[in-house]
Amino acid sequence: MSQSSAYSDFLKLWGIVTDLEHGSAVLQWDQETRMPAKGAAARGRILATVAGIRHDKMVSAELCDAWNKAIDSVEADSLEAAQLAKAKMLIDREVKIPAELAVALAEAESAGLHAWQHARAESDFAKFQKELEQLVKLNREKASALAGAGRPYDALLDLYEEGSTEADLVPMFAELGDVLAPMIKAVGASKPVDESPAQGHFDPAAQKAYCKMIAAQMGYDFEAGRLDKTTHPFCTTFGQGDVRITWRWQENDIRPAMYGVMHEAGHGLYEQGLPSEWARTPLWAASGLGMHESQSRMWENMVGRSEAFWHWAMPHFHIAFPDKADVTPEQMFPALNTCKPSLIRVEADEATYNLHVAVRFEVERQLFAGGVNVAELPELWDQTYENLLGVRAESISDGVLQDIHWAMGAFGYFPTYTIGNLVCAQLFEQARKDLGDLDSQLAVGEFDPLLQWLRSNVHQHGRRYSTKEMVQMATGKPLSAQPLLSHLTALAERVYGVSIPV
Amino acid sequence: MSQSSAYSDFLKLWGIVTDLEHGSAVLQWDQETRMPAKGAAARGRILATVAGIRHDKMVSAELCDAWNKAIDSVEADSLEAAQLAKAKMLIDREVKIPAELAVALAEAESAGLHAWQHARAESDFAKFQKELEQLVKLNREKASALAGAGRPYDALLDLYEEGSTEADLVPMFAELGDVLAPMIKAVGASKPVDESPAQGHFDPAAQKAYCKMIAAQMGYDFEAGRLDKTTHPFCTTFGQGDVRITWRWQENDIRPAMYGVMHEAGHGLYEQGLPSEWARTPLWAASGLGMHESQSRMWENMVGRSEAFWHWAMPHFHIAFPDKADVTPEQMFPALNTCKPSLIRVEADEATYNLHVAVRFEVERQLFAGGVNVAELPELWDQTYENLLGVRAESISDGVLQDIHWAMGAFGYFPTYTIGNLVCAQLFEQARKDLGDLDSQLAVGEFDPLLQWLRSNVHQHGRRYSTKEMVQMATGKPLSAQPLLSHLTALAERVYGVSIPV
After folding, report:
1. How far is CA A33 from the centre of its chain?
2. Nearest to A381 by CA among A395, B494, A369, B218
3. CATH code for A166-496?
4. What top-level class would CATH report for the domain B167-327+410-496?
5. pLDDT, tens digit, for every residue of B248-307?
């Protein structure tokens, strides 16, 4: 058998697995955006069936044989070898999870999502507790199956960011906390900024048009995507040419919609920028979620909250919201870069955001260490918020029910948000060096140079390299918290006049 | 192995096949209602992958073994035996179609749908010709594979209406033509009716609210369904609790939207009324498409175009469209029951509708007899329209490109529309006898007695019986064209004053 034939036989089988994953993504998107309430049970079964088939295909002797033949036919250190290595890693991971567990997880995720939506809408944890208990139970089984002799929670962390461990994350959050805790305290003692430029009345239809215009200017291709309303914004990929984002809005504040859309469009740009010639192969996917988050955060925070960006955006803002026709970029800037403890992660400022993540990391660690049961989570959540941010939710919808992740069965996911913030700051620092006067480009809406920098340093690699490897390649340095801390302390100094040594 | 265990093992495997079918239906619905243009190729591959897996499951030794064990464990003439008999019929059919052909068909259908949408929008047959040629070629292969020693076109007809043959349909269309052709001619010589009560300006949002209100009053459950816009209206089922309908509208005429929605909601009521305890079993589906069409046509024509119905609907119509506040049911009735040759099947009146179907039957017969190639279809279509209806399309979008069916790979489907009209008239005649004063019920919006009559005579049986069997059971007589012809000639007499012997 010729080299190309064995390799392409393997890719053909792999394409089937990819198709099932993308098909499931469509079913899930529909579940969240369009499905009528009574369709939930049937949808759960369909998703479970597809998950079971995907699992069977991944662990099949046919795929294993094809891999064995293909690996003998490719050059070491070639792209083909990298494709096969990634496939092997994913197959090995899958083999560790029994088929019944995979099906049970898919069912529990559909049930969980549905229950969470109700529980959140009605601020009633009891409506979600049973489903969450099942999700935790099954994810403990999954973690143990994946970890073998290792630590279960690390096995879950590794799913979302390769090589990420609890032992590494504890000092990372400590390093951030050492700077951010006193900084947030100092900011809290300063004069609050005027947030009125971002507040008022914003017509939802005008918000949608304005946000879509910004996403399109960023380079998000609406002919290969779309924007829909959901409870919790997300980005999802159904294959080459179909990468969708979702949003939500508040009528009295432009920030949730605008920065939600810029965030998700940032994710979308990454997915739309994956090399099309790799479609349906093992490497046709984004790298770890930390890298993914770096892309969304860069467009949301580094670009969208900069004063330079607002020199371009402001005329559009004035047209979309005539009530706001007298706001200047200089007035808008502080309102977008406030720093204060809050309850909702997705609407938190850049600095405290990392403490929101630290809360979840702390709660998950305890949950997977086994010392906590699900019934205790609401209080543990609120208490940890009080410890780290000094605030306590009045409604459980703003407490332990605020995030979709656990309802989707995603445990070990949250830390990738802060890893993403680190990566974002370090990559943006480098992009700024490489691109010359980036602020002048942003100020006239020229976002393409930055996008092309990301395409060539990140997107074009698919998941060939880990997040840490790509950071090293792009910046010449290992991943570090320093660029993020420099950025955040500089903001605090400019907006609040507080000076914190990094 | 106990009886129930072997039987339930079989149903478990069958449920997987059902889930894949419903999953594909979601992917197709999204493809038509939501998918961005560039997602078409990837979506086609996903659908082909799922179709291939479904096919493999249907013809698998595992399913065959399970069936053999199950059949030995059930009582003859039981419900379980009926379930297994239906499964066997479907499996045998599937076995005849090679896997490569099933995958190629799924790919050709996705490509065809996409090409047809473009070709129709641009009135350019060339943009669809290549895809249609592929669809015809593959469907000829499919027909031959299914027919064995029989006639290929009959094998396709049988897919959509069990036991339907070209030899039976030719005299059926002749019987209809013998009455309808002189009737339509006589009507054409009479004074045209005033259609202005149904024409004017109708705000799309008001149309939507008004049509949804009617569908809800009919009993269509929006918590187990939804209404979306598509090029061509349809109804699709994703399992228990999720049966969706689609619509389109014209701003200058209420009829396309209103009767499109009543039609699709009629289909939806059938699907929503299938016995929930049979979900994911072989019998949990509607019977042949003729029976399906009888349900949609009954709500659209027998109910929605009756004067009695408008005594209930008119106040709602006045509120939705204040410009029309002086229209009476008596004025509206003739505008809804016109009879004149037209170009668009889905907007045709009840009488000429059957001639539209006859055109398609005639074109398909020739196409599958092999004497015609795809490039000749536009002219054959136009010529047949001229022969049967005396009209010729000015734009190819109103000619051979008007229907979605061939683009979806559905050949042999059209005759079920006229079979449905026959069934509809015969069932409605019986319902009228059984329900007492049906007109008084319709006149106050009491649609539930009719719905319950349909539930118990049709919906509750799933696909346990054929259309012809259910007609016999419900009416005590074999299916006949006479009730339809009586209905149509009575309408022509009332609206146009022409008298035609049946």
Report:
1. 19
2. A395
3. 1.10.1370.30
4. mainly alpha
5. 999 999 999 999 999 999 999 999 999 999 999 999 999 989 999 999 999 999 999 999
* Number of other residues whose CB lies within 10 A of the CB of residue A143: 21
Neighbours of A252 (CB within 10 A): 11
Q: Is the pLDDT of residue A28 over 90?
A: yes
**For B229, phi and psi rounded to 5 degrees?**
-85, 135
pLDDT digits (tens, 9 = 90+) for A235-279: 999 998 999 999 999 999 999 999 999 999 999 999 999 999 999
3-class DSSP assignment, residue B250: strand
Starting at the edge strand found earlier in the chain, the sheet holding B235-237 runs B227-229, B243-247, B235-237
Instruction: Using DSSP bridges, classify how beta strands A243-247 and A235-237 pair: parallel, antiparallel or unpaired.
Output: antiparallel
> Would you say residue B3 has pLDDT above 70?
no
Other beta carbons within 10 Å of B379: 12
* Residues A435, A453 contacting (CB under 8 angstroms): yes
A50, two tokens:
């597809």
Provide the 3-class DSSP secondary structure of residue B162.
coil
pLDDT more than 90, % of chain B: 90
Cβ count near A383 (within 10 Å): 14
Any idea where the domains of chain B sit in the sequence? 3-150, 167-327+410-496
Q: φ, ψ for residue A199 (rounded to 5)?
A: -115, 165
- Say if the Cβ atoms of B42 and A23 lie within 8 Å: no
Classify residue B303 by its DSSP letter: I
E strands, B131-253, are 227-229, 235-237, 243-247
- Residues in chain B, total: 502
Q: Do B49 and A23 touch (CB under 8 A)?
A: yes
- Candidates A111, A406, A35; CA nearest to B23 is A35
Report d(CA B63, CA B47) in Å as an integer: 22
pLDDT for residue A2 is more than 80:
no
Q: Between B126-147 and B99-121, two packed helices, what is the crossing angle to 10 degrees?
A: 150
Residue A1 has pLDDT above 80, yes or no: no
Chain A segment 213-242 residues within 8 A of B by beta carbon are 221-226, 238-242
Alpha carbon of A246 to those of A234, A288, A409, B39: distances in Å?
Answer: 5, 21, 20, 17
Q: Residue B210: pLDDT above 60?
A: yes
Give dist(CA A126, CA A128) in Å, integer.
5
- Residues of A within 8 A of B27 (CB-CB) are 23, 26-27
**pTM score, two decimals?**
0.89
C-alpha distance from A47 to closest chain B C-alpha (Å): 8
Q: What are phi and psi of A323, to 5 degrees?
A: -60, -20
Does B175 participate in catalysis according to the annotation?
A: no
Tokens of B2: 């106990």
Residues 6+ apart with CB under 8 A from A81: A71, A74, A75
Residue pLDDT, tens place only, B395-448: 999 999 999 999 999 999 999 999 999 999 999 999 999 999 999 999 999 999
Phi, psi of B476 (to 5 degrees): 75, 10
- What residues form DSSP beta bridges with A246? A228
In this prediction, residues B12-40 reach a mean pLDDT of 95
Alpha carbons within 13 angstroms on the beta-carbon side of residue B498 total 23
Share of chain A above pLDDT 90, in %: 90
- The pLDDT confidence band at residue B30, using thresholds 50, 70 and 90, is very high
B45: chain A residues, CB-CB within 8 Å: 15, 19, 239, 280
Task: Give the distance, in angstroms, between the CA of residue B474 and the centroid of all CA atoms in the same chain.
Answer: 21
Question: Does residue A3 have a pLDDT over 60?
Answer: no
**Structure confidence by residue, pLDDT tens digits, B77-98:** 999 999 999 999 999 999 999 9
Cα–Cα distances in Å, from A118 out to A29, A30, A124, A231, B47? 17, 17, 8, 11, 32
Nearest to A242 among B42, B241, B280 (CB): B42
**Would you give the DSSP letter of residue B253?**
B
Per the CB < 8 A criterion, the answer to whether B220 and B265 are in contact is: yes
